[in-house]
Each structure stands twice: as C-alpha cells, then as structure tokens.
Amino acid sequence: MRANTVDRWLRDQINRYGPVSKLSLFCTPTVLLAGPAANKFVLFSSALHLRHPPSSQRIIGEKSLLDLHGDDHRRIRGAILEFLKPDMLKLYIGRIDAEVRHHLQENWYGRTTVTVMPLMKRLTFDVISALLVGLERGDARDALGDDLVRMLEGMVAIPVNLPFTAFSRSLKASRRARRLLERITLDKKDKLEQDNASANKDLISRLLSLLNDHGEQLLTNEEIIDNGIHALIAGHDTTSILMTFMVRHLANDPATLAAMVHEHEEIAKKKADREALDWEDLSKMKFTWRVAQETLRIVPPVFGILRRALEDIEFEGYCIPKGWQVFLSTNVTHMDPSIFDEPAKFDPSRFESLSSTTPPCSYVAFGGGHRICPGMEFAKMETLVMMHYLVRQFRWKLCNKENTFVRDPMPSPLHGLPIKLEHYTSL
C-alpha cells in the first residue's frame, strides 16, 4: 500500500491464478475476484455483507450504514436518501457555492504556492459540516475537523487500544466527535419540537424530522449520530481526493484544461456579477464531469471492496463458504485493456458513450447495487462548483518533478501536491 504496488500485486495474482483465487486477508480466508461479472455478483448479491476492518467499526459506531444489512440498512439508507434526493440537492447549491468562494478567498488568493490535498480536505469538511451537521464556522467546527483527521488515521490500524497508538488516538477523537454530535442532535431536536420549519436545513435535522407509521422518530439518536460520523468520514476524503487528482492531472494537460475553461466561461457569461451557481448551471458542466469520471477510473479513492458471505454462495462454479471474505478488485477492471482501450491514457471522451460500448458493471467508482454511494450526486455538486471557480481564477504548475502518489490506504500525491499559483482573474 505505502509503496503503491498493490495494483501490480493484484494483477500478478490474477495473471497467475485467474480471476477467482484464494488468499488470506486480515487473518481471514478470502476469495479474490476481478472482472465485470464479479463486480455485478458482489455489488448486487444479498448474500454478501459489507465487511471492513474491525478498527473502522469501533471508530464510526455499530449503527452506521457500513455495518447494517437487511431491513435496518434499507430503513436508514432510505432516511439518508431523503436528504440527498434531487429536489433537496437543488437547495444546497447556494451554500456550497458560498463555502467554495470563502475557501478560495481565505486559502488561495494572495499566495504564490499552496498544497492542494490538505486544502481540498478542508473544503470538503467545511461543506459537509455545514450541510450535513449544520455546524457554522468557529471553534467547534475547527475542533471537529481536527478530530476527524485523527479518526481517519486509525481506520485501518491494528485495533489494539494501547496508549500512543494511532488506534487509541482515533478512539479518543471519535468519542469527542460523538459528544459534539450528541449535543447538536439534542439541540436540534428541541428546536424541531418548537419549529418544524428548519427540518430540511441539514442532515441531522432531516433525520430527526422523519417519523414511522406510528408517528415515532424513525431513527434513534444513536443511529443518527453514528451515521453523522459516517457521513463526515465518507464525505471528507473521497471528494477531496478526486479534486486533488484533477488538479494534478490538469497541470500537465493544457488541452483538457482549455476545454474545461471554455465550458465554465460559457456558463459564467450568463451569470450576473457574483451570482451563485444553480442546478441548471451544473447540468451544463458535462465535460468537467467526464474529466472527473476519468480521474476516478485511473485513480479510484477506494481500490477494492470487501464483503463477507452470509451463507454458502456460488460464483462461476466455485463455492464460497459461509463466513469467508470476498475481496473485489475494482481497479483491475478499470485498467483492463479489453474493456477500456489504452487504459493508462487519460481520455474523458470515453465517458460520452460508456454504457453502450462496455460490459455492465465495468466502471464502479461509486460502487453499485443497493450499496451504491448515496452521496454520489452530492460529491458531484461539490466537485463541479469547485472546478468552476478554480479553472476560471487560477493557473498552476506542479512543484515536484516526480509526479507520484502512495496509498495509505487512500491515494495521496507526493508531499500533498504543492503547486505554484498564478492568479488569472478575481472572484
């Protein structure tokens, strides 16, 4: 992982043993699968339960979507999707627009060099803490941001709670974050009882306002807090990594950058001075989203998916015993030359007609099936708004000649991707 040779190791394993093979992972017997048929099998099978390192469960909580299946998973996922459905997403664009403008003004303007990855992580945290938790700028938000970083450090650590270990620091940070979300949840519950008009302003308020058939709160406070923690973690790293690697690629691809700039300038021509973007504007950013999709194909934030068999299950003549793990290598599919012509070449145009030219479940950057990423459209909004202002306001060059990255466990460019900035226009 740290040497970023995991993709090569997986390809060697598949070349040697085929697309179905056995190995041991996290001291558990595991089946390694690869290919579009395997993607479909894993992502759509109800007999396979999501599995992740035990450290993650203890940090996030037992009631998050990561650990639930069956009726509980459907109930909580349905509740979260109430916050993320299209007519609700349209209400959030103005807030995301304001957060992006503030972020650029505070952290990019007036500087000749910046380090992209930590800034992108700060932006995504500010957006999700405002819209998912309803936390305004200030000391509480800053403290939560610090705790979130510490929590992420222990997500795949050995789950031994000893002093001075990454896992111990993560658990302490998780407890602090949980206490903050508990206070926020109770405060919002009191306000909702007095005035239900604020029910749609953030995820926690929305979840508190949902009732079951008996008029009772649909989700318990524990479920709301655990899934609030999950939303903060899920929304923090993945989108920031996508935007960081888009910046990384655009530094050395003037043709793609020029096409993006043209798309966004055409949109800006029809906007009044300092007028926020809206849903119609985002729908016109088709080329920019193809660039994002191609970035996710080549450098997916999550390179594989882990499941556990709830029962004996068969795949292509092989029996996977109950209790065994199934590891799906999505990145191997993304870089398969029989599916994507010249897979190492950055080519956003391949997404103009992807569905008609490739086998189903070949591109699974956001997962699939009943566990497809519920925040996919939210992440898309964040990315498009940030890129709209970034490519119109700045030009940049990479500071490091060596353009490499490692995984720990998500991809991270060398030194966080420092760049030299040139201010192109003003906000």
UniProtKB/TrEMBL annotation:
Cofactor(s) required for function per UniProt: heme
Keywords, ordered alphabetically: Heme, Iron, Membrane, Metal-binding, Monooxygenase, Oxidoreductase, Transmembrane, Transmembrane helix
GO MF term list: heme binding; iron ion binding; monooxygenase activity; oxidoreductase activity, acting on paired donors, with incorporation or reduction of molecular oxygen
Presence of the UniProt keyword Ribosomal protein in the record: no
Residues reported in the UniProt entry to bind heme: C373
GO aspect biological process, one term: sterol metabolic process
Database matches in PROSITE patterns: CYTOCHROME_P450
Recorded family membership: Belongs to the cytochrome P450 family.
Protein name, per record: Cytochrome P450
Native organism: Lolium multiflorum
Taxonomic classification: Eukaryota, Viridiplantae, Streptophyta, Embryophyta, Tracheophyta
